[in-house]
Amino acid sequence: MTDQPLGLSKTLALYESLVADVAFLDAAPVVFDGALAAEVMATLVGEARLLDRRQFDKWYDLWAEDAAFWVPLHQNHHPARDQGLIMDDHRRLRERVWRMHDTSAWALVPYAQTVRMVGGVEAWPLPDSDADVIATSAISITHERTGKVTVLAGRQIHRLRRTDNGWQIVRKIMLCPAISAGMPHLGWIL
Amino acid sequence: MGENMGKNDPETNLERDISDSLRPDAIVARGPDLTDEVEHLIRKDVVHRRVYTDPDLFNIEMDRIFGATWCFIGHESEVPEPGDFVRKRLGKRQIILVRTRKGEIRGLLNRCSHRGTTLVGEEEGCAKRFTCPYHGWAFDLDGHLQSLPVADSYSKLYERPFDLGQIKVVSHRGFVFGTLAAEPMPLDEWLGPAKLWLDEHIDRHPSGNIRVLKAPIKQTYKANWKMAWDNAADGIHATFAHRSYNLLGKEAETDTILSRNPAVSPMVGYTLGHGHCVVDQRPGIPDGPWSTMRPLPTREDLEASLKERGGDIPRETWDLMTGNMVNLNIFPNLIFVGNQMVVPEPISADETLMNYYLVMADETPEEVNLMRMRVDEDFMSFGIPDDFEMFERVQEGLQTIEEEWVDVSRGDDAGDVVDEYGLATGDLASEAPIRHYMQEWKRIMAKPIPTTIRRARIEDSKFMKAQKLKAESAAAAAADAK
C-alpha cells in the first residue's frame, strides 16, 4: 500500500472500509447499548421523515463533509471491483438533492409520495474511526408516482458522528435484495 | 394479429411440422407467414403502433428476432476458466454460456432433457457438470448426458435424444453471438460494416483486452424493447429528455456534450446494414471524451494519483476512463453507451429488462477501472431514469388505437445521404437508424424461419455408449441362454 500514490490509497481505503462495515454485521455482538440505540433510532426515523416530506435540503444538512452513500447491486459486492447503483460523495449528494427539485427531471415529476418504515435499530460505539457510532436498521420504502407503486426493502448501515448540533451522518449503506433481481429505476432513492 | 387477426401464437401453429419436431435434429419453421402483415405495418416513413403493443407480434419476435437470427449472448471474459458459466437469455429461453474443459465456449439450453427442469438457478458459477435437482440426471460441460440414475428403467435408452440442447454460438474477438437458425447467415456477413466499429471499440483497450463484469445493473421499464432501440441512435432527444442532466452539468460548470445546441452539432450517424447503426459524437468534441467529464466522486484523488505516477500519461489513458463517444448499436440486443454494454431483454410487449454490463480496461493503471465505475453510475442516476420515463410515456401514448401510425420520417430527403448500398449518413436529428432497423425487423418477421436445436452427438457420449454396450451384451447373454 505504501508505494501507491496518495489519491489511490485514499480511495481504496474508503472502499475497504465500506466493505468492512458490511462484514461488521456478521461480527457484531447481539447485545448492544439500548440507550445508544434509542438515541440513534431518533436520528434514523428523523432522516426517514425528512425524506418522506421532501425536506431534502434539511436532509442534506445532516451529512458530514466526508460523506459516503453506497448502494451496491449485491450485498457481497466491493466498490473497487463492482459497479454499484450509487457510490456518492458529499458533492454528488448535493447534485441528487438539486435534481429532486428540478422540474425537468422527467422521471421525478410529478413528485412521488413515499413512506419509509425504519425498525430493528442496533447501534455500537465505533472507537478509533471517522465516526462515533455504527448502526444498522431495516427499512421498507413504499414509493408511489403517477399511479405506480414500488416497494423496496433493505438493510441500512449508518456511521454517525456526535456533534454539538446533534448527530451527523458520515456514511450510509443500503443493501436491497430486489436491486439484483432487476426492478424499476431507483433514480429517486436517497 | 392481436386486435384484428385472432390466434396466431407460434406455439400452436405447428400442424405442418408436428411430426417432424419429434426428431431430435428436426428443422422446424414455426408460426404464420406475415409477409402481407409486415408490409402493412412498416411503411417507408411510418410504423404502425402495433409493432410496439401487440402481444401476438411480440411472441413471434421471441421466436424469429430473439432466436432465429443472431443475438448477442455474452462475452468470453465472463467465463475465463473451464467450468465457468453464466446464465443468459435468448428471448424466453435460458442459456448456460459455459467454457468447456477444452476451453471452448458453448451455449447450452438450461433445460433438462428429461422433463424440462432448469439445470442451474445461479446467475453465474463454476461447475464440473450440471446435475438436475429433480431426478439427478447429470450432463458434462459439452452437454453430453453423463449419468442417469436408474438407467435400467429405460429400454433402449441410447436411442433417446437425451443430450442437452444447444444453440449455435460464434465469437468475434470475445463477443459471443448465438442463434437457433438452422442455416444462419455467416456472422461476418451479418455484422457487415458494424464489425469495423466493434473492432475499433475493442482496440481502444490496451492489447484489445476487454473484461466484462459479470453482474449487470438490471432495471425494468414498462414499455416495448424497441423503445430502447429507437432511442439508441437518437441524438436530438438528449437536449430535451436529458435537460436535467445538462442543467446539472451547467451547475457543475461542465458543459456536457449533450447540452450543446443540436442544430450546430457536427455529430454524425450511419446505418450499417442488418439493423445496426452507429452515432459518432467525436467530431463535436475536439478535446477528447475526458474533457466532457463532470466532477465525479473520487475524481480529484484519482486524477492526482495518475499524475503522481509521473511520466507522460497519454490522452488515450485519460480517455479510457470515460466512453469513446461512439454509440454502436448491434441489432437486436447490443448497445454500446459509455463504457457499458446494454443488453435489452424483452419481458412482454410492454415490459423490458435492461442489463447494463460494465466493461473494464485491464493493462492500464488501476485508477482507470476505479474511475470507470464511478463514471457509469453518473448517467445511471441522472440520465437513464429520464429515458425510461420517455419510453413509458410513448407506450402509454400508443394505447390510443385510433392513432395508428408513428412517424419516423425525420431526415428522409432532408439531409440524409444514402450510398449505393442503401446505407444512410445523417446528422443527429435523422431518424434513418429507426427506419433502417425497422426494415430489418420486417425482413426477419416476414416468414417462418427454419430453426434447429444442436445437440452433442449421442455417439460421443461415454454414458450412452456404455448403455448400448450393456444392452447388447444383455441381449447376447439372453440369446446364449436360449
CATH classification, class level of chain A = Alpha Beta
The tally of structural domains of chain A comes to 1
The portion of residues assigned to helices of chain A is 25-40%
Distance between the termini of chain A: 33 Å
Gyration radius of chain A, in Å: 17 Å
**CATH fold description of chain A:** Nuclear Transport Factor 2, Chain: A
> Could you name the ranges of chain B where pLDDT drops below 50 across 5 or more consecutive residues?
1-19
Largest sheet of chain B: 10 strands, antiparallel
Oligomer: heterodimer
Radius of gyration of chain B in whole Å, from Cα?
Answer: 25 Å
Q: Helix coverage percent of residues of chain B?
A: 25-40%
Describe the biggest sheet of chain A?
A: 6 strands, mixed
Measured between the Cα atoms of the first and last residue of chain B, the distance is 64 Å
Strand order of the largest sheet of chain A: 2-1-6-5-4-3
Strand pairing plus helix content of chain A: what structural class?
alpha+beta
Low-confidence stretches of chain A: none
What is the count of β-strands of chain A?
A: 7
**Which secondary-structure class do the elements of chain B indicate?**
alpha+beta
Biggest interface, which chains? A-B, 43 and 47 residues
Describe the protein.
The complex is a heterodimer of chains A (190) and B (482). By secondary structure, chain A is α+β, with helices and mostly antiparallel strands. Chain A has one domain (6-181): Nuclear Transport Factor 2, Chain: A (Roll). Chain A contains five helices and seven strands. Chain A has helices at residues 6-27, 34-52, 56-61, 90-101, 177-181, and strands at 63-71, 86-88, 113-125, 133-145, 148-163, 166-175, 183-184. In chain A, strands 2-1-6-5-4-3 form a six-stranded mixed β-sheet, with helices on both faces. With 482 residues, chain B is α+β, with helices and mostly antiparallel strands. Chain B has 14 helices and 25 strands. In chain B, the strands form five sheets. In chain B, strands 13, 14, 15, 16, 17, 18, 19, 20, 22 and 23 form a ten-stranded antiparallel β-sheet that branches. In chain B, strands 3, 4, 5, 6, 7, 11, 12 and 25 form an eight-stranded antiparallel β-sheet that branches. In chain B, strands 8-9-10 form a three-stranded antiparallel β-sheet. In chain B, helix 9 (299-308) runs antiparallel to helix 11. The A-B interface holds A 4-8, 10-12, 73-74, 77, 79-80, 82-89, 91-92, 95-96, 98-99, 102, 104-108, 148, 179-185, 187-188 and B 213, 215, 217-222, 241, 243-244, 247-248, 251-252, 295-298, 300-306, 308-309, 353, 356, 358, 366-367, 370, 373-374, 376-377, 380-382, 384-386, 388-390. Strand 7 of chain A pairs parallel with strand 14 (217-221) of chain B, so a sheet runs across the interface.
